[in-house]
């Protein structure tokens, strides 16, 4: 007697198309899958025929891709992201997504975002550096490290830092750091100040120039010649 495999057939019971170009499929085994409508159309919309294993796997994978795509778009809508940041966030979030290669789906989604100009490492780097220059008294090496931690190449980082910053700007930022330390009212030795500026990412050349101006200010302050005080420093408490 020939044995017949008792395998439950799966059908698509309903398909609801959405204005965003997706379709929500309700399967006979209670699964609900949301994916790009073009994928469903490409299969010929087989509502009256049982789905093959290959078709079910394709629909599951495309539903996973749609979920990843929507999450990536939400990240990009909130702020600019580097490709490295998006990879890390999405792989952490979807690493349990069944038998699918999440890394491959993330890379496919990244390529789509880049082709549509929704994601750009160059644009991210410009915005990141502009924000750091506007809001933080950090030197170029600290910003370089922050960019490398976000997957930006040294070549691109150097190019944009050189475009947006210059020696005069870094000196002003170093003096701003010294001003903040001065306002705390605690006496700092040159060695300590040197180390603090170095930790904030300033070059030795910038540190030397900033400390010379700071020590000149201290010298005039102690002698009572406050009229010689540089504009960068104030004697008022914050």
The overall strand count is: 3
Report strand %.
5-15%
Total helices: the number is: 10
Low-confidence stretches: 1-6, 234-238
Terminal CA distance reads: 93 Å
**CATH fold label of the largest domain:** Arc Repressor Mutant, subunit A
Task: Give the SSE string.
Answer: EEEHHHHHHHHHH
Looking at the overall shape, the CATH architecture of the largest domain is Orthogonal Bundle
Percent helix, as a range, is 55-70%
Structural class: mainly alpha
Number of domains: 2
CATH superfamily of the largest domain: Winged helix-like DNA-binding domain superfamily/Winged helix DNA-binding domain
Mean pLDDT: 86
Radius of gyration: 29 Å
Q: Overall 3D geometry? A: rod-shaped
Write up what this structure looks like.
One of its GO terms (biological process) is regulation of DNA repair. This is Regulatory protein RecX. Residues 120-159 form the RecX second three-helical domain. Its main location: cytoplasm. One of its GO terms (cellular component) is cytoplasm. This protein has 238 residues and is mostly helical. It has 2 domains: 12-119, Arc Repressor Mutant, subunit A; 169-238. 59% of the residues lie in helices and 7% in strands. It is built from 10 helices and 3 strands. The chain has helices at residues 37-42, 53-78, 83-94, 102-115, 121-135, 140-149, 154-164, 167-183, 190-199, 204-222, and strands spanning 12-17, 22-27, 32-36. The protein has a 3-stranded antiparallel sheet with strand order 1-2-3. Strand 2 and strand 3 (32-36) form a beta hairpin. Helix 5 (121-135) crosses helix 7, helix 6 (140-149) runs antiparallel to helix 7 (154-164) and helix 8 (167-183) packs across helix 10. The longest helix has 26 residues, at 53-78. It is rod-shaped. Mean pLDDT is 86; it is low at 1-6 and 234-238.
């Amino acid at each position: 007697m020939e044995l017949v495999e008792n395998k439950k057939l799966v059908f698509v019971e309903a398909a609801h198309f959405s204005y965003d170009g997706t379709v929500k499929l309700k399967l006979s085994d209670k699964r609900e899958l949301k994916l790009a409508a073009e994928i469903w159309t490409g299969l010929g919309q087989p509502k009256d025929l049982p789905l093959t294993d290959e078709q079910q796997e394709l629909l599951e994978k495309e539903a996973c891709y749609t979920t990843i795509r929507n999450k990536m778009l939400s990240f990009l809508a909130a702020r600019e992201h580097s490709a490295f940041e998006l990879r890390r966030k999405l792989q952490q979030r979807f690493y349990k997504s069944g038998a699918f290669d999440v890394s491959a789906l993330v890379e496919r989604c990244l390529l789509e975002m880049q082709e549509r100009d929704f994601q750009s490492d160059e644009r991210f780097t410009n915005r990141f550096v502009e924000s750091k220059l506007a809001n933080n008294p950090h030197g170029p090496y600290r910003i370089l490290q922050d960019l490398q931690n976000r997957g930006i190449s040294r070549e691109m980082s150097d190019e944009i830092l050189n475009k947006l910053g210059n020696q005069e700007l870094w000196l002003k930022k170093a003096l701003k750091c010294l001003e903040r330390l001065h306002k705390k009212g605690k006496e700092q030795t040159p060695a300590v100040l040197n180390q603090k500026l170095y930790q904030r990412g300033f070059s030795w050349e910038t540190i030397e120039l900033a400390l010379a101006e700071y020590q000149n200010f201290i010298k005039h302050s102690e002698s009572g010649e406050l009229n010689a005080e540089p504009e960068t420093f104030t004697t008022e408490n914050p």
